[in-house]
Amino acid sequence: MQTDDSGLQVLSTGECLELLASADIGRVIFTDHALPAVQPVNFYLDDASIVIRTNLGSKLAAATRQAVVAFEADEFDSDTRTGWSVTAVGRARAVQNDDERARLERLPLRPWAPGDRSHFIVVRIEQVSGRRITAEPANAASARS
After folding, report:
1. CA distance 119 to 107
2. What pLDDT does residue 143 have?
3. Does residue 68 carry a pLDDT above 70?
4. Has residue 14 got a pLDDT over 90?
5. Could you tell me which of 75, 26, 76 has the C-alpha nearest to residue 51?
6. For residues 22 and 99, what is the distance between their CA atoms, to the nearest angstrom?
7. Domain span at residue 48?
8. Average pLDDT of 98-125?
9. Which has the minimum average pLDDT: 42-46, 86-90, 108-112, 126-130?
């Protein structure tokens, strides 16, 4: 098991994609008027692409057209102090092709927010990294006491 300088477990690409596929909510990080913006979204991992449904006139739809974005999902348990975080980077694109849109509509991705969410954004993952924090071994905790 590889760890980073902080002692966190470094996840492989396969582990990162598996964890992304298990998450319901993530955050897309994009630029809005030259400033960083973060928006929580529900999503679906389709092979190595993140699929998001939104409405055509949304700030997210406008800001992500052919833009490089980051995407992050995580899961933490504060009681056990365990969890993971995965970050992906890729270029976002609006889906224009009717055949592709029809295929994406069949995915198990249902918008949580109200309103028309018939616009799809696809982020093809170009880079992915992740870390996992595991419960500290009992002997390490007692050694510090």
Report:
1. 14
2. 43
3. yes
4. yes
5. 26
6. 26
7. 9-135
8. 88
9. 108-112
**Pairwise CA distance, residues 100 & 102, whole Å:** 5
Is residue 76 in a domain?
yes
Helix/strand/coil for 14: helix
C-beta separation of 54 from 94 below 8 A: no
CATH number of the domain to which 27 belongs: 2.30.110.10
Residue 67, strand partner residues: none
Here the tokens at position 16 are 């990162």
Counting the structural domains of the chain, the total is 1
Ranked by mean pLDDT, the top range of 101-105, 109-113, 114-118 is: 101-105
Q: Which two tokens stand for residue 95?
A: 């889906």
The full DSSP string for 62-111 is: HHTTT-EEEEEEEEEETTTTEEEEEEEEEEEEE---HHHHHHHHTSS---
Tell me how far apart the alpha carbons of residues 104 and 107 are, in angstroms, rounded to a whole number: 5
Contacts 24+ apart (CB under 8 A), 5-8: 8/131, 8/132, 8/133
User: What is the DSSP secondary structure assignment for residue 3, as one 8-state letter?
Assistant: B
Asked whether residue 142 is assigned to any structural domain, the reply reads no
What is the secondary structure of 18-43 as a DSSP string?
HHHHH-SEEEEEEEETTEEEEEEEE-
